[in-house]
Amino acid sequence: MNNKTDVYMREIFIGQVDSPEEFIKKVKQERRDGKIPDILNINYNKDLNEVIVEVSRGRSRRPVIIVENGKSKLTEDHVNKLINNEIKWADLKKEGIIEYLDAAEEENCFIALSEDKITNEHSHLEISPILIMGLTTSIVPFSNYGQSARLNRGSKSQKQSLGLYASNYLIRIDTDANILHYPSNPIVKTCNSNIAGQENHPAGQNLVIALMSYEGYNMQDALILNNGSLNRGMGRSTYYKPYSVEELRYSGGLSDKICIPDKEVKGYKAEEDYKLLEEDGIVYPEAKITEADIIIGRTSPPRFLGEMDEFSISANRLRDSSVKIKPGENGIVDMVVVTDNDEGNRLVQLKIRHDRVPEIGDKFASRHGQKGVVGLMVPQQDMPFTVSGITPDLIFSPHSIPSRMTVSHLIEAVAGKAGALHARTVDASAFSNESEESLREMLTEMGFREDGTERMINGITGEEFEAKIFIGNMFYLRLKHMVGNKLHARGAGRIQLLTRQPIEGRAKGGGLRLGEMEKDCFVAHGASLLLKERFDSDRTVVPICSSCGLIAVNDIFRKKMFCHRCGGNVEVNRVEMSYAFKLLMDEIRSMGIIPSVKLKNKY
Predict the structure, then answer these.
(1) H/E stretch holding 407
(2) Are 294 and 323 in contact (CB under 8 A)?
(3) How far is CA 333 from CA 109, 162, 330, 353, 438, in A?
(4) Which of 84, 145, 154, 364 is the one with CA 20 to 30 A from 373?
(5) Domain assignment present for 565
(6) Is residue 598 one of the residues assigned to a domain?
């Protein structure tokens, strides 16, 4: 039996070794000495008895500090030299203090999180324990006090937040752009906030939050906002939506034309509809537009031309293919660009802007995965206030904390309060943050209770609350999910050809499906008669033979109904049913199974 271990490089067999451990040890030492390129990584798979050498491109590799005989090779002397710019990062690599591992080599390594936890078994040391998290997750303050599921959600919330995504947003045409009007830098931040350049792209605001219930309008995860804060600009944003049109060329030398359509054009609307267009057929900048307004006039050649149609006058008429604002949208024309595309066709791009003030249904979140929608906006005079006169901008439900165990959410409120009172930022980096004890001391120094609670007064009755209310400063994010973009309603509209039911999709002007659960809600609320109207979207009247129950024939020319099987001497009744059911019966009949409808008197 062969006890040797196979060695593979770039997934190609290159030889065998007697002792894989000794071989790997020698390769690593020569890599650290600079005899082998440092892009090489090596891994021993015990289960398959294989040594895999990797030098391929596209691998994700990360730096770690080498540990030998239970001691880190990075000393205080190295750190001081780095701070004083006497040595650089590359020098640490050359000296064999730091090396880069890929995911495969990491399998055979034992990495300590911090220097005080190093044992003789450890092979490497993390540069910082915060590196176990990704860049976005590491921006979550006090993240070592929160559970992993909430950290992931906090990370996602930060990606969905509104802020200043690019400083040249005025001249960019992006698909769905949102700009927060008054973004601010967080009082509580981590060391990675600066590395990520968060101060140049802020995406939230520092708010005063109180943890309490208010008239039940912040049940579950709902939030209550101070209307006075909203009037002063809290959470305001601008939404930018682009529209673009090009003059397409078709076979036969025909092409679209951007202009104000002539009255002879097929599908011409009323003159009133083209009122916003200038002579070139394009809307003017700063025009106020509402739903279904035409913003770019365009004419197109007929869609289908047969051989005989070439000689007819009616077929050669141009058709109107002007661009309208989509249903439910409005705003002001922010920018108009007229240019050519790659094919040399004329291209018109324009951008609509719409000012968004937070409203009921808009989504807000903290950086700890505590997201919720606005449930109520309260006038400032009705908001509770502290004895020192501070009114919270946002009221958050205390019931959202225990089950989710986001202790970091509470600590941020205390840290934000201490930082605001001392006029400085608070370091909340994971595993190396300012201690809770020091934050409590800071509050006590300024004459506040160390636990962050204060006496508060009811703004409606003027009485003091019996309980002390937890109140502090927190960095809150406004998310891109706004109720204005999601409102969906329609009356009559387009239907599918097959089922005669409304088409799907808000963007297409489709219907909203009412399912079993929605039906149950109507019944539970005592609104069961509403179901008659809801389920009438594909109502149809079908003639049914009262004798055999088959679908009869309605002869509209002779004005009489008869049954194929029973003839014209039997009674035929008009039966109201869903077209989807009629379609089902037709499809069953196509399989050779004849369904019949048994009729009985309604009353």
Answers:
(1) helix 407-422
(2) yes
(3) 59, 21, 9, 6, 52
(4) 145
(5) yes
(6) no
246 with 389, same domain: the answer is no
Please tell me whether residues 248 and 334 are part of one structural domain.
yes
Q: What is the pLDDT of residues 429-483, one digit of tens each?
A: 998 899 999 999 999 999 999 999 999 999 999 999 999 999 999 999 999 999 9
pLDDT digits (tens, 9 = 90+) for 17-54: 889 889 999 999 998 888 888 899 999 998 888 999 99
CATH number reported for the structural domain that contains residue 472 in this entry: 2.40.270.10
Cβ(475)–Cβ(204) under 8 Å? yes
Answer whether 449's CB lies under 8 Å from 460's CB: no
Task: Read off the tokens for 299.
Answer: 């004419």
In this prediction the pTM is 0.84
Instruction: Tell me, yes or no, whether 502 lies in a domain.
Output: no
What's the rounded Cα separation, in Å, for the pair 377 and 394? Answer: 9
CA gap 428, 434 in Å, rounded: 6
Q: How far apart are CA 318 and CA 102, in angstroms?
A: 63
Please write down the HEC assignment for all residues of 168-181: CHHHCCCCCEEEEC
**Interval 493-508: pLDDT, tens:** 899 999 999 999 888 8
- HEC string of 70-102 equals CEECCCHHHHHHHHCCCCCHHHHHHCCCEEEEE
Strands 205-211 and 453-454: unpaired
Sheet holding 298-300, edge to edge: 257-258, 298-300, 319-320
pLDDT (tens digit, 9 = 90+) per residue, 55-108? 988 889 999 999 988 899 998 998 999 999 889 988 888 888 999 999 999 998
Last residue of a domain, one of 461, 478, 495: 478
Same domain, 286 and 316: yes
Distance CA 192, CA 138 (A): 6
**Shared-domain flag, residues 317 and 385:** no
User: pLDDT tens for residues 358-374?
Assistant: 999 999 999 999 999 99
**Residue 577: which CATH number?**
3.90.1800.10
Angle ∠(546,549,553) on CA atoms, nearest 5 = 80
Is residue 521, in this structure, part of any structural domain at all?
no
User: d(Cα 149, Cα 155) in Å, to the nearest integer?
Assistant: 10
> What is the distance between the terminal CA atoms of the chain, rounded to a whole angstrom?
90
Tokens of 374: 């606005």
Active site residues: 221
- Its domain, for residue 583, covers 539-590
**Six token digits for residue 128:** 């910082």
Q: Do 368 and 337 belong to one domain?
A: no
Supply φ then ψ for residue 32, to 5 degrees.
-70, -30
Alpha-carbon distance of 14 to 134, in angstroms, equals 36
* Cβ neighbours of residue 404 closer than 8 Å, sequence gap 6 or more: 147, 150, 369, 370
The HSE-up count of residue 502 (CA atoms within 13 Å, CB side) is 19
